[in-house]
Amino acid sequence: MLLYAIGWILIVLLEKDRNHKTVMAFSAWYLPLVILNPLVGSVFAYFDIMPNRMVRIYWLLPVVWVIAYGLTKLVIKVSGAGKWLGMAAFLALVIELIVVGKPLVTEENFVRAQNKFKLPNEVIEVVDKINADYDAGLSDSRKVVLPEELAAYARVYDGTLPLLYGRLPDTDESGRVFIYMSYDTLDMEEIADGARNLGCGYLVLDSEKPCENAPKEAVVTKFAEVGKYCLYRLD
Amino acid sequence: MVQFILLLLGIFEVVCVLFTFLKLNLTALIIVYGMLCFLALGLFLRARTGHSFFVAHFKKEGLSVSVFMLVFFLLFLYQLFVVICYQHNDADDAWYVGTSVTTCETGRLFIYSPYTGELLKWANAKDYLLSPLPIFWAMFSKILHMHPTVFTHNIVPVGMLCTAYIVYYMLGKELLGVKGPGQENETTVKKDAIWCFLVFVSVLNLFGYYSTRTTGTFLLLRSWQGKAVYCAILLPLMFYYYLKVFKEPKRKWLVGLFLTSLAACMVSFSAVTLTPLLTGAMCLTYAIAKKDLKIPFQMAASVIPNVILLVIYVLM
Predict the structure, then answer these.
(1) CA distance A225 to chain B (A)
(2) Domains: count for chain B
(3) Residue A107 included in any domain
């Protein structure tokens, strides 16, 4: 926001065109009026429009373009005193943006593409192994319970794969299994029996999480392993 | 060209929402939409409306190389390299790409949940129903016989990145253009300034990971998702049209504003709510700055589709 304020001030000081100033800088007047206005929030809440998403209103601020425009105006201004001076100002500003900025292209955000789907390899391997097992006629149901981190992507790879829940559960019953799957210690009785009662044929568990309580109803057969994930058939 | 693409997106919004409520399938949508696209192309060519930005610009200006331009293209190529060779795992794909995959597999529009494959409860997904960008990607995947995930993760980011920088170039030219002698109606560009502007935009995108919702984050991490298209491409385009309207309130710029607003409705439901706020603010600003009420009313008309969609949303 500091950079935005700097860009905003540069536009106000250096821009001569009134239209540019009005659209890029002065038009932001409404934002505090909307954000700090309880009436706006009440109307949005009443009609259930964008619940918990009011923060998206900041998207409307042309932050990047205001900063870039303000800095460009500054470079133009400095260039007036000498071309090389302008170039030096440009370089200094670019370095400044890099130093104060936070890099986007990091190991945290990106990994080298693992396959043509650009999905985690484990997702593809797990889904392929379940499909192969089901196609071999070893289970009556293809419906799967997956750990949350795999559930978000399984149907992105195979749109025909039935899941008990995806990124989030759709029903209270599936939500119960979803919650038990999210605990640090897995309660096999609740998970396996719950999944079986909801018509699931397969269960995938993170082997790094300890398990407790054997299932009472479901017969759990391990048929494959993919990385840290163990694949079970539910009978 | 710009307005024609926006028109195609707008037509898709109308047709797809209608087909969703009529519970028609993807194949029917492709056929009808394809026919409407050809019809729109014919009408567009006949009317000779819109504005061909790049052809006219480069014919007039030519293309000369400068240091700023080289730096920009290096940064742009680096961004292209990142979106082509790297992957970002985003859990939001479970809905956005999941919907495209489910639609392609079943051929039905918003009938099955992308999360589970069970029947979709519309009450839980009404905002997504009204902004059917995932169906748009599913349509292309179907036509190209390509898996929707491969399409959205490999082809779309390249298209979005190129489109975004074309829009930034247009915005930059509008902001940094100057009227040359004897060119009162033409805007020539200070070339170095515009490339300098684009360098700054690129650096801000590459080093602007202050949150998961900055322009750069949207553009480089998940450009196939509707909110990313809205924030990184359509919002700057709206500012381009606002500038045009403020400078010379001609019909074609108002039409551009209308089409951008309609296209924004197609890509993200957030746009349905946010665009009227922005346009309302711009209308008031215009009315105060220019002491004129006629143009603000015409600008306000650009968000009629948003109002209609909001009414549908509330009634659903």
Answers:
(1) 22
(2) 1
(3) no
Domain that holds residue A214: 121-234
Torsion of CA B74, B75, B80, B82, to 10 degrees: 120
Give the span between the Cα atoms of B42 and B58, in whole angstroms.
Answer: 26
* Residue-number span of the structural domain to which B118 is assigned: 2-315
Burial of A67 (0-12, 13-18, 19+ CB in 10 A): buried
The answer to the question of residue A60 being in a domain is yes
Chain B residue with minimum CA distance to A68: B200
What is the model's pLDDT at position B257? Answer: 94
pLDDT for residue B188 is more than 80? no
Query: Do A132 and A226 have their domain in common?
Result: yes
The ipTM assigned to this model is 0.89
Tell me how far apart the alpha carbons of residues B51 and B49 are, in angstroms, rounded to a whole number: 7
What SS3 class is residue B47? helix
B206 contact A CB<8A = yes
pLDDT of residue B256 exceeding 60: yes
**In terms of Cα–Cα distance, which of B168, B149, B191 is closest to B60?**
B191
Whether residue B68 and residue A64 make contact (CB cut-off 8 A), yes or no, is no
Q: What is the pLDDT of residues A111-164, one digit of tens each?
A: 999 999 999 999 999 999 999 999 998 888 999 999 999 999 999 999 999 999
One domain for residues A134 and A196? yes
pLDDT (tens digit per residue) in A196-217: 999 999 999 998 988 888 777 7
